[in-house]
Amino acid sequence: MNKATIIEDAITYITELQKNVKVLSNQLMEMEVSSIEDAKALSKETDAPEETEENRIEPDVKVIYVNGNKLWMKMIFENRRGRLTKLMEALSAHGFELNDVSVTTSMGATLISSCVEGTLGEVLEASSMSELLQEIIKHI
Amino acid sequence: MKMYEETPCFGPDSNHPSPMVDSAIDFAHGSSSEEKQREPVLRLPVETQQEDEDEDEHLPNIGTHLLQEMTNNPCDHLSSLNWGSITAAAAYKMPRVFDTIDNEVQGFGALPNTSFPPTPAIFNHFTLQPQSAPLLFPSTRTVHDPTFDLNSPLGLHCAPPLALVRELFQSLPLSGEVLFGDGGEHDIAGEGREEGLVQVQNGGASELRGGRNGTKQQPANERERRSHMKERFNDLRMMIPNSTKTDRASVVGDSIEYIKELKRTVDELKLLLDRRRCGRERKDGKRQRMDQDQGDVNSCITNKLPGDPNMSYSTGLRSSMLRRKSKATEVDVRIVDDEVTVKLVLRRKINCLLHVSRVLDELQLDLQHVAGGQIGDHYSFLFNSKICEGSVFASTIAGKLIDAVDGHYAVAPPDQ
Fold first, then answer.
1. Most B CBs within 10 Å: which of A1, A83, A88, as the mutation test of the B interface?
2. Which pTM value belongs to this model?
3. A90 part of a folded domain
4. Is residue A4 a part of any domain in this protein?
5. Is residue B172 within 8 angstroms of chain A, CB to CB?
6. Chain centroid to CA B9: how far?
7. Contact residues, chain A, for B168 at CB < 8 Å
8. Which residues contact A60 (CB under 8 A, 6 or more apart)?
9. For B265, which of A8, A21, A31 is closest by C-beta distance?
10. Does B179 touch chain A (CB under 8 A)?
11. In this predicted model, what pLDDT tens digit does every residue of A24-66 receive, in sequence order?
């Protein structure tokens, strides 16, 4: 037993495992194709209840000025798929970036707590940022 | 040392893990003088330790762990191989080395057919349970070959960890089939064993390098072997996805991690497949198709993979984990049931939150928690999301994330 054999065995074993993974994934893919119809039927059922939710979550925005071009903001809004991405895109489009972010989701609501900084070097104002955020929430 | 005074652990039924472990550990760190008192056979594994470059010094330990990974839960189809034939084949190829050990050590009268010594109990030192012979050979739980009993004292006679490598080699699922079947590689391996054999017969010469035979051919063979080794290491490095450093120790370390990851992925895929099969067959059974074999449903639910008696795949917990690294980014993806946790560490931020968010949306993952920020000169993020629909694989997620983040490195200015 020496290093050469170990290394060679390792190479062989890795190839073997990779092959297994490929075979199994292919099998899984094939099975999935045939069961896509079932999945679609299920998803249609699950989407409907979200829209008829009775407890709507009111969006809430708080912004505090920290210093220079840095603000601290806290937002609560209803959790829907893809909303977070749209929020990021909107902020990015306005030239803001989020630092030290914390996002939590619970009971259908999303809470974002983060520092907001302007990338364009301008001094930000808490009130205007607050208004902007509220607008964004309405549109996402 | 105290090993010899301990209760003898001969035979397949004895079970004395702790004294063995302690003794084994003591032995591994034992002094050379004590070793010499016993058998010349102790010199067997030392050969590779003193080989070649300095960077290989700690390689034997890594090699042991590498083999450890390869032998725990070998692949499904491999488990169907006939262990008897493998051990016979392995024994055939390595008879002389272990013959000498056998001659020296008494008490293996219980061994039926081969002179192949049992796997040493020092394996308990790693992760195996005391009576875990089946762990090494999951398919042979019922075909327990007493020659591979873990609780033999053979381990006591193996001095440094390389001995474990040698013993572990016996239990490699591929050893009997693949390695020996490959003619080209066999020569190298055979050559190594020959040298080991020579050492044994010489009673453990201190000169373990070129001075063995003293002929002019030896350096040339050494050079050949070194270049061959280099080639092999490069091959191995090419195969693993996370290779950032090129030194041999890192390659071995990374390959251990990669093998673990591959095994996890195989288990995960089997579980998913089984689930799907069961789910589908259950549905078909409800529709009461004439050509549906009801027996499949039952067999599917109770289908247990040989060697994993505790895990019924269709009801098990899906779990997988893998890591991918690129030059400036590290991604760690873990999937447990329907939740995906991603840890991301990157050098430059470049609005990664947005990109990650997009990728996760594409993969139909619902972001639940995000946390992260700047630490020192890099950024660290944790994303927790739920699988909404469709199937996702950790490798896909990791790949897409790395691409998304790295791709934007090129676009962004160097300093931000």
1. A1
2. 0.58
3. yes
4. yes
5. yes
6. 27
7. 1
8. A74, A75, A76, A77
9. A21
10. yes
11. 988 888 887 776 666 565 555 444 445 445 578 889 999 999 8
